## 1
Amino acid sequence: MVDSVLSSGVSGIQRGIETAREAASDIARAGTVEPENAATVPDLAESAVKLIQSEQQVAASAAVVRTADELLGTIIDTKA
């Protein structure tokens, strides 16, 4: 049980980091797109929201990992 919770937390952190990278890349690319490619300009507001959401996802997933770690410690202490 703790294993699957820990796995979910780590997966959430990885997904959050990947989403943050994509959003940061979109934000960085927004100022470099040529006018003829204006249709491909990323929406800065949307990218900023994605960046904040990914930050929150990583924080929430880290809390899950912390909680799983505490639970595992309690289980070990109880069995000892």
Note: The two ends are 19 Å apart (CA to CA).
## 2
Amino acid sequence: MKEQGGLGPGHLLPHAGRQGLGMLLDALLGQGQITVEGPFLDAGDSVLAITGGTGEVAGATGDMALKARGTDGKAYDFIYRIK
């Protein structure tokens, strides 16, 4: 299934002594929302964990690939693999 969803509130938090930032965000979908947590790497792609959901995606697991569209760090594709 390929659908376009929306992103809701998110936070980037620094990791002491580690490269990149920690990311926590909610993805608002037509049938509910999912929560994603994990590393946001400055120098490449990241894979974050889906840690839960609401509505029709309650109890969701899986991951989200965060793929850079270029090398300037200004645009990313958010690819969700929900189980």
Note: The mean pLDDT is 83.
## 3
Amino acid sequence: MELVSLLPALTTTALFAGALWLGREMISTRLTRSVQQEFDKKIESVRADLRASEERFKAQLWEPITIGVGFELVRSYFHSCSRIYPLVKSPKTLVKMA
């Protein structure tokens, strides 16, 4: 058999193999990008929820509270969550508030 007679069969096989490889790569790439995009959306949603939760937490830490004797106090976020500092504007604020 001559090489010329096998040329159409070899060419067809090579083109078919190349098309299959290209198709597989395209599907793999699209699937990978789709999963990555979905993951990015979910992670951004989680980050946004975390930021919102953190802001609510910070707001709660700075929110003035009233204890049983009636003095207004505020929790300091920057120093310690367990320490409570009185808001003293003048000596009159130390009088029990009605």
Note: The first strand starts at residue 65 and ends at 66.
## 4
Amino acid sequence: MFLQTPSYSLESIKTLIREGNSRITGSALFDASLYDLTHVHIKEAVLLLSPSDFYKSMQSEKNELIWQDVYHKVYRDITWYIKVQIRGKATVISFKESDEYEK
């Protein structure tokens, strides 16, 4: 199931990241590393997100009770597929080049 409105406040996600209350999954870090990007770049890209970058909200593949918000953001001349959620901490689940997935 998909929703056309975010499940989480983008400002809440950004605040948690600024406060250091966040995590980035290993797969997001790995995908970013393919472009010589680190956790610092991932956080910077998320902090640059705007509401107009929102693409969809979707249920987690592992737990359908958990929703995840997907954004498409141009960062360093690449359009990224960025999937985030809040579960106590702001979590960046995916950080992939969107051309490989969905537009």
Note: The chain has a mean pLDDT of 94.
